[in-house]
Amino acid sequence: MRKLFYFRLALSNVRRNKLTYVPYLVATAVMSGVFLLIAGLLFSKGLTNTPSGATAQALFGFGLVVFALFTFCFMLYINNFLIKRRKKEFGLYGILGLDKRHVGRILIWENLFVVGGGVACGIAIALVFGRLLFLLLMKLIHAVPGSEFSIPPVAYLLMLGLFLLIFLVTSVTNVVRVHTANPIALLSSEKRGEKNQKGLFPLALLGAALLAGAYYFAWTTEVPGIALGIFFPLAIVVILATYLLFLCGSIVVLKMLRMKKSLYYQPDHFVTISGMFHRMRQNSRGLATICILSTMLVVTVSGTLSLYLGREEMTRGMYPYDVQVYAPKDATTQQIVAYDAALNRLAAENNVTLTSDRGKLITSLPEGEEFGRNNLVYEDSEFVETPSLIFFDHSYRFDVQGTNEDALAFIQAIRDHYGDSFSETPNLIASDIFTTRVQGYALYGGLLFLGAFFAVLFLAVAVLILYFKQVSEGYEDKERFNILQQVGMDDYQVKRTINSQVLWVFFLPLAATALHMLFASKIMARMLKSFMLYDWGLVLLCIGGTLLAFAILYFGIYRVTAKTYYRIVHR
Amino acid sequence: MSLLQVKSLGKIYQTKLGMRQVVALKNVSFEVIEGEFVAIMGASGSGKTTLLNILASLDKPTTGDVLLDGKSFASIPDRELSEFRRRHLGFVFQDFNLLDTFSLKDNILLPLVLMQTPVREMEERIMPVARQLGIVHLLNKYPFEVSGGEKQRAAIARAVITDPRILLADEPTGALDSKASASLLGQFEDLHSIGKTILMVTHSAMAASYASRVLFISDGALFSQLYRGEENNRAFFDRIVANLSILGGGDVA
User: Fold this and answer.
1) Pick from A270, A480, A488: which is nearest to B86 by CB?
2) ipTM of model
3) Which tens digit of pLDDT belongs to each residue from A525-548?
4) Closest Cα of chain B to A175: distance in Å?
5) Phi, psi angle pair for A432, to nearest 5°
6) CA B242 – CA B146 distance, rounded (Å)
7) HSE on the CB side for A60, CA within 13 Å?
8) Helix H segments across A86-199?
9) Which one of A194, A262, A277 has the shortest CB-CB distance to B119?
C-alpha cells in the first residue's frame, strides 16, 4: 500500500511536470536508440560479411565507446539541470512532513519512469529505423547488403547496461541532493538574487586571451602533423574560453553598458540591458554548453562530410598512377624487363589493359602538399628502360583500363603470381587505387555515418537545454511583463524588448559557433591534409554548408521553443 | 473642482463560455477633490480591486465612465492609454511589483526612463523623493536585499517621481507587519500633507484611519462614506470600525 503511494505520487509528478519530463524522455529515447543502433551495426553479421566490413567495424567500435561516454555525461548534466529546478518542490515536501527518505523514493520512481520509458522508446526507434539505416550504410560504404539486418542481443545488453548505470548514478545524485539540503534553503533557492560577483573582469580577460591564443594557433599552424596534434588541446582551450566568456565576459560587457548612463537610460536599452543581465546570470552556462555542442556538431559533420566527399580526390592524390608494383631491391635489369611482360600477360588474362603515360610524371610536389605521390621523380631517381611500363626507384607505375572487378582480380593475380618471377618477396608487393578505394568507402562512409549519429546526439542535448531555458524564462518573464505594463510600458514596447532579449540570447551561441568555425576551418583543412585531402575549397564548402544547414535547423527550433515561451508569457 | 469623477460605473465579468455572469460593480459614483486622501474599504470580493483597476485604466468598465481633470478615460485610444497612465497616474501595489532585475534606483527611475527624461533631470528628481521616503542609502541595493517596508517605499517613490495627478494604492500595507504598516501610512500622510491626491483601497480599518475620507463598498455598490473632519486617527478609527460592523465585513487590524 505504502509502496503504491510513492509509485502513484511519482507517476502524478511525471504527469504534472509534462513540460520538462516529455523532452527528457524524448532525449533519453534518442540517445538510447542511437546507441543501440551503433552497437547493433557494430555486432551485426551483415557488416562482417561485407568486403570492407572490418574497417567499418573497427571505426564503429571506437565510435561506440566515445558515444557511451558522451551519453553518460549528457544524461548526468540534464538530470542535474532538471533537479536543480525542482528544489522548491522538494522543500515543500519537507515542510509538508514528507521524510527526505520518502522524497528520495519518489525521485527514484520518477527517474525509473522516465529512463525506463525513454529506453523503451529508444528500442522502438532502433527497431523502426535500424533496417533503413543499415541499407543506407551499405550504400555509403558501397557494399551489397548480404544478410538481413537484426540487432544482436549483445547490443541490447550493452545499451541496457549503459542506461542502468546512468539510472543508478542519477538516482544516487538526486537522493544525495535532497538529503544534503534543508527545506528552508530548498524553498528559497529559486529566489536567489543577483549578488555582485567580484573578480569577473580578470576572468573575462583570461577567457578573451585564451580564445585569441587558440584562434591564433588554429589560424597559423601550417604543418598538418602539428595541426592534428594540437587540434584537441586547442579545442579544450576554446571550450574553456567559451565558458569564461559566456559566464564572465557577458556580465562584464553588460556592466560596462550599464555604466554608460546616456546609453543605459534609454527606454529601449534600459529594460533590455538589465533583462539581459538577469538572463545571462541565469543561463550563461546553458548557452555556453549550447555553443560548444553546436560547434562540435558542425566540426564532426563537416569533417566527416569533407572526407566522404573528398575521398576520390584523396585516393587519386595518392595514386596518380593506378598501380605501383614493387620489384625486389636487388632485381637485375633482365628480371625487371621480363616482369614487364609478365604483368602485361596477367593483365590480358584478367581482361584489362595497362598504360603507362610518361606525361604524368612530375619532379616537384604541387604547392602545399607534402606527402608522396607515386608519380614523383627525384633528382637521383634511377630509371630502368622497360618495353611498356614506367619503372623507376624499384617499382613499376601504370594505369589499368577495365572494370573495377577485373582490376581488383588483376591486383590479386599479381600478388598470387609474384613468386613465379622473383625469388625474394618485398614487404609490399603492390599498392593500388582500387583496393584503397574500397577501404576508403568503408572508412569514410562509416565515419560520415558516425558523424551523423553524433550530430543527432549533440543536437538532442542542445535542443533540450534550449527548450528548458525558454520554458523557465517564460515563467519569470511573465511576472516582469505584467509589472512593466502596470508601470506604463505599452504592450508593443514590452513585446519588442522581450523579443530582442530572446533573440539576443538565442542567437549568441549560434554567432559564437560561426566564429569558432571560421577559425576552425583553417586548422581543419590542415588536418585533413594528413589524410591527403588538399581541397580547401571543398572543406570550406562542407563547413559552410553544414553551418548553414545547422543555422536553419536552429532557427526552426527557435521558432518552436519561442512559441512555447510566448504561450507561457501570454498565459 | 473635483480632480477625479467616477460616473455610475458598472462591471460585469462573463465566465469563459458566457454561461454565468458575475456583477463586480454596479452603479458606483463618487468624486475625489484635489489634495484629498480617500480610502476605499470593503471585504474581499466586494469589488474594490475591480474598481481600482478601472480607475488605473488597466481594466475597462462595462458601463459608466471615469474622468480625470475632466478628460474621459473612454475617449483615450488604447495606444495612448499606457502613456496616459505613465504621465498622470502613480501606482502602489500590495506585493510591491518591483522588478528584481533592477536596483531600487533603477526601479524608481523606470517611469522617467520610459518618458525619455534626460539623465541629468532624472538624477535631480530622484534625490528629493528618495530623501522624503528615507531610502537614500538603499538606492543601489536590489529588491531582494531590502525588507518589505523598504520595498514598498521604493514602490511609492516610483509612483510619485513622475509627479502624477493622483496616487492609486492597492492594499499597500497588505504584505507588511504592523510596524512597517504604520511607518508607511505615515509616509502617505506626509505626501497628503504636501498636497498629493491619494486614493487607497484597503480592507484594514487601521490603514483607512489615516485617510481624510473613507468610502465603503459592499457587493459592488457604494454603501456609505465617512469624513474625518477634525478628528484624530484614533477617533476616526473607532468610527470606521463601528461603520464596518454595520457593514458586516472588513478587518479591524
Assistant:
1) A488
2) 0.75
3) 888 887 777 788 888 999 999 999
4) 30
5) -145, 160
6) 37
7) 26
8) 87-95, 100-140, 153-180, 183-188
9) A262
